[in-house]
Amino acid sequence: MARIAVLLTGCFLMFAVPVAQAEEPQSTASKSELALWPGATSLTLGRDDAGKSVIAWIDSRALDPLGKGALAFVVFDEAADEDPSGQHALRMHETLRQTFGEDVRCVMVYGGPGQKYPPSGSAYNTPRERMAATIWRAIGWLGPDLVVECTPEDVDLNDASMLWKAVAVQPAAPIGTVPSALVRISENTGPAAAQPQQQITFAWQPTPLPEKLGVSPLRAELQQRLRRTPAKCAEQLAAVYGHDLKNIMYQPALAVMARLDLAAQLDDSSVAVEIEKVVEPWLQKSSAPKDSKQKGVNGSANAGHLVFAAWAEQTGDPRAIELVRRVADQAFDSQGQPLSAMPGHSEMSDAVFMACPILTSAGRLTGEEKYLDMAQRQLQFMQKLCLRSDGLYRHSPLCEAAWGRGNGFPMLGLALAITDLEAIEHDESKEKSLRERATQLKQALLKNLQRHAEALLPHQDPTGMWRQVIDEPSAYREMTATCMIGFTLQRGIDRSWLDAERFQSSVDQAWSAVSKRCGADGVLFDVCTGTGKMKSLQAYFDRTAILARDERGGAMALLFAVERMRN
User: Fold this and answer.
1) How far is residue 209 from each of residues 212, 338, 349, 494, 505, measured CA to CA in Å?
2) 61-65, 196-200, 441-445, 528-532 — which is least confidently predicted?
3) Least confident of 18-22, 183-187, 373-377
4) pLDDT, tens digit, 9 for 90 and up, residues 278-293
5) Which of 536, 401, 369 is nearest to 481 (CA)?
């Protein structure tokens, strides 16, 4: 029979139910289980090794490491409607509540066969490790104070790969360790057992457990991260990211741009001096002959030139303006007529970001209206290919998957483009016709941004994150999509593009979730690896979730942090 997972926290309950991915119900626990835990809401942790959803029932206390603790359990067993381990978990919940009080968070795992901790492969796509990766990383972002693994009596206590042993000595996810324990369960433990609590044997790891548990190293680290101001988080990220431009690609370019913005907010002129050294080698190439054949046009490189737009806006450097113009001119033929779209779009929704902002930047810097017209043409072209009827973007015409970053890119692209248009609109030195065109285009882009924001809002996870596939609850929580969407919503609120009452709490939740996932050393949590257009939904599920320093993720997180500083 299929295994079931149950997670209980205080007065809430989590279940992994054996549900096919296509169905994704949000309330499939048995009636008896729900009746035992009133007020619970569903939360999907991820996917198991068979691709089934791991569905949780939970209350909000477990999602706030700064708030009071709550008891938690995870259970793996075999039957959804007749689950003896679920009944046993209820009794264990009462035992631990009485022992440690309400302010201790405990994750209980009824061990399934073959799970090895910590998982050694990439998440969440290594065969036979999907469930282990889901549990290991969920412990990381839940931040419990105690992990208890429940096993049969005949378990090998010398197995170092058991969860209870691994989590006590190896930082989960890798944020911090958690005190742990083992509970060995008699075969006859269940609803009909006469005195089930007397049939439980505790074996504590690494030492006998005290009568009271404090905050675990894992939760203490999460609390420290959440207590940082956005400025402090930005400072830590800026120490790692945005210090070089070895290639003109959007990943390092956005980090450099964010550092420029951060320096402007802090009135730190030393950063501009450093960044000038970074961009100068490229500025010197602005006088090189232009390649009229447009070989190797690359959308990521096109967007990478946004760093020169930012530099030109700050310094007026004509060499930077020339580099921006050269990229924008790729959208026109040799007679100066607009193409159907900017080359390098690859039919991917990413191209809303890869082209629209560089075109509006060119219009802002040169005063030429044709670039604004082309930005609108680019958006319309991409929407015909990728915009779904529900307001989300499919990543490409190859399949309907609403990839996370494939929706974050259009949000970020329109936010940056509208920012340019507002600057033109309010610049009285610009020609009146250009300003009027900027106003017209701004209103059109705003409507698109607002519709997309509304479409995204229902898909934000209760933890504050958006997922690797926006509308698939079992897809993992993905950092860069959340950063781009959060950045856009925050800028939209600050500039009155979006209603604060409608969106501010969403942005606040997104920032808390992202802040938890940003280590002071620049290590990031669940950043989707580089992704071209995939042919199936499963291919998006299987994209590696990076848990390390990452140039792309660092740039997006830094952008979001700097934008939050204005709030």
Assistant:
1) 8, 71, 53, 49, 39
2) 196-200
3) 18-22
4) 999 999 988 766 654 5
5) 401
Residue at token pair 């009944």: 87
Pairing of strands 41-47, 53-58: antiparallel
Nearest to 39 by CA among 52, 19, 57, 64: 57
| Cα distance between residue 12 and residue 219, in whole Å | 19
The DSSP secondary-structure symbol of 210 reads: P
User: Average pLDDT for residues 113-132, to the nearest whole number?
Assistant: 90
Label each residue of 83-133 as H, E or C: CHHHHHHHHHHHHHHHHHCCCCCEEEEECCCCCCCCCCCCCCCCCCCHHHH
Q: What tokens does 524 get? A: 């990031």
HEC profile of 331-376: HECCCCCECCCCCCCCCCCCHHHHHHHHHHHHHHHHCCCHHHHHHH
Taking the C-alpha atoms of residue 466 and residue 551, their distance in angstroms, rounded to an integer, is 20
- Summary mean pLDDT of the chain: 85
Cα gap 370→433, rounded to integer Å: 12
Helix 250-266 and helix 269-283: axis angle, to 10°?
A: 150
**What are the C-alpha distances in Å from 262 to residues 222, 234, 256, 271, 563?**
24, 8, 10, 9, 9
Which of 530, 535, 484, 491 has the alpha carbon at shortest distance from 510?
A: 484
- What is the distance between the alpha carbons of residues 410 and 200, in angstroms, rounded to a whole number? 54
Can you say whether the dihedral through the CA atoms of 276, 277, 281, 284 is positive or negative? positive
Full DSSP string of 174-202? TTB---EEEEEE-TT-STT-SSGGGGEEE
The pLDDT tens digits for 154-199 are 777 788 899 989 999 999 989 999 988 887 766 554 444 444 444 4
Q: List CB contacts of 247: < 8 A, sequence separation 6 or more.
A: 301, 304
> Strand 146-152 relative to strand 106-110: parallel, antiparallel, unpaired?
parallel
Has residue 413 got a pLDDT over 90? yes
